[in-house]
Every structure is written in structure tokens, then in C-alpha cells.
Amino acid sequence: MRSELPHPGARPTTEQPPDPPRVAWRRQMRARVLEEAWQLASEAGWDRVRVADLAQRAEVSRPSIYAEFGDRAGIGTALVHRETERFLLGVAEVLADHRDDVAAALEAGVDHALAEAARNPFIRAVVTAARGGTDALLPFLTSRPEPVFSQAWRLVAAWLDEVVPGVSKDRRNDAADIVVRLAVSHMLLPGPDPGEASVRVARVACAILGTACGGE
């Protein structure tokens, strides 16, 4: 299931009518299964997540889980999409709070991303697996049609489109690309001084953007 992140600065939509009972139950069941999958993956790693355990913990039948997600890989994909959306919504809020200073916004955004990667046990489990050579969850992070990297890139690129419209599109896209790649790199392999990571990322992005970052 694919979900779209709101465009930075988008206003909340009007309240929707309540779902029919069957749709509401399915939505709740899906949320319970994903939450239990998150808990199990955070505690023991994705390799230990079993559909039978999820069914018992979420108090739903295995056929219901298979009907909703298709298979275990479908659960992993849905879970990664859910966590990615939550993660990027947090980054979007930080960027929106610093619209008047591009460098400060990028530093704050990268700081938030790195702190969340260290705090969130699910993200930490994925990062730890990558460092240790176990990649059970990693395929979900690059699965089509919506690679996680692309979602992050689109978020940063859309934000740059709004705050530095005078900079060429190519430069904005290049800056978004380097911000995401460097941030992910620091998540997977932190440097000797993690506190300086966001400063370095912002400095490189500002160099690409040219004169867009005031105070540089």
C-alpha cells in the first residue's frame, strides 16, 4: 500500500466522514498487525518476525493477515512505508520551522534525522543489521515502486523549490540529492564527531546552491 507525504506547507484537509464498519475494522486490524511487527522487529530483528506470532499478538487470524498484506514480505514493505512516512513527516516539520535560514534548516533537519535514527528502535534495528552484514530488512528500503530514498529526496527537493526558487532547478535537485545521501551515510556509518555531521551536510548543500544560504 502506498501513501503520499503531504507537500511541505500543505494545509490539513477537511474532516472526512467515518469509515463503514468493515473498512474501520480492516484499518484497525492493519494498524495492530503493523504495530506488533514493529515491536517484534525492534526487539529481535526482522528475521524473528513470524506471521503466526503477529496473528496471536494482534488477536487476528492468519488468513486475515494474508488477505491484507499478501505475505510476510508485504508486511515488511507496509511497515517500512509506515515508518518512512512518520520519519519524513518529522523532518518536514523541522524544515518548515526554519524556512528563513536554509543552512540552519538543513542542519536542524539532518540533526533530527540522525537523532531519530538513533532513538527509534526499528530504524536502529535496520541500521544495525546493515552494519553487521544482515540485510533481511534492507530490500524493503529500496523496493519499488517507491524507494525510501526517493521519498526523502522529493521532500527535500520540494522544500528547496519553495525556499530558494531563484536557484536553478538542477542545483536544487543536486543539493537535495547530496543532503539525503550524506544523511543516510552518517546513519549507516557515523563519523568521529557526530555533532558536526549536520554542519558538514549543510555546508556542502549550500556550496551547491551557491548564494542561497545567507550568512555563509
TrEMBL record:
Determine the domain of life of the protein's source. Bacteria
Where are the annotated segments for Disordered?
Answer: 1-22
Q: Which UniProt keywords apply?
A: DNA-binding
Q: Matching PROSITE patterns, A to Z?
A: HTH_TETR_2
Checking InterPro entries in the record gives: AlkX_C, Homeodomain-like_sf, HTH-type_TetR-like_transc_reg, HTH_TetR
Which is an annotated Pfam family here?
Answer: TetR_C_35
Q: Which residues bind DNA?
A: 50-69
Domain HTH tetR-type: residue ranges: 27-87
Q: Which residues form a coiled coil?
A: none
Signal sequence annotation: none
Write down the PANTHER family for this protein, in alphabetical order. Answer: HTH-TYPE TRANSCRIPTIONAL DUAL REGULATOR CECR, HTH-TYPE TRANSCRIPTIONAL REGULATOR RUTR
Quote the protein name from its UniProt record.
Answer: TetR family transcriptional regulator
**Source organism of the structure:** Streptomyces sp. 900105245
